[in-house]
Amino acid sequence: MAWFERFLSQIADHPAQIFALLFVIALGKSTVMISSVLPPASLMLLAAIAISQPSLSIELVWLAITLGATLGSILTFHFGQLINQKMLFPRFFARHNGRLQRISEKLQHKGGLLVLFTSRFVAVLRYMVPMAAGMLTFSRTRVYCVTACSAAIWACLFIGIVSGALYFTAPLI
């Protein structure tokens, strides 16, 4: 983590680089391929927000994190769709296709989008649920809207923790 602190101190005076860093970290935390390799990403994101405060407005910090998190979830959703369309696990889908269709229909009508929304706030579910939504053929428009809304609230929570406004919620995220 010392290398990351040195890196942050070097870019502290460059707002565009900080914006890009916040975007990339939030994107990585929401993507199944990257998040599983970077477990301390929450600490990295908190440190990047703290270093950005003198050079970026709070709105730009929020925008970078929201865009990165939304794009990460959307990419993971499309990865799930790719798994389903290309039948990357043919025996699994051949065996469970009818059951998966029934589950998909139930979830889309009975709170599946709520599960998608709340999964943003739980570490492993943050990228597993959007991937499952893609595999279960959830509506693309609904998934985009729900992930954007949850990412916006999630970004507010992170910024609130760093600014000290929400110090009591830090263990939850």
UniProtKB/TrEMBL annotation:
Subcellular location: Cell membrane
All copies of domain VTT, residue ranges: 40-162
Topology versus the membrane: Multi-pass membrane protein
Residues that span the membrane, as ranges: 21-49, 61-83, 141-168
Principal location listed in the UniProt entry: membrane
UniProt superkingdom: Bacteria
Record-level GO cellular component terms: plasma membrane
InterPro entries in the cross-refs: DedA-like, VTT_dom
Keywords on record: Cell membrane, Membrane, Transmembrane, Transmembrane helix
PANTHER family, sorted: INNER MEMBRANE PROTEIN DEDA-RELATED, INNER MEMBRANE PROTEIN YABI
Family listed: Belongs to the DedA family.
Name of this protein: Membrane protein DedA, SNARE-associated domain
Protein source organism: Hafnia alvei
Lineage: Bacteria, Pseudomonadati, Pseudomonadota, Gammaproteobacteria, Enterobacterales
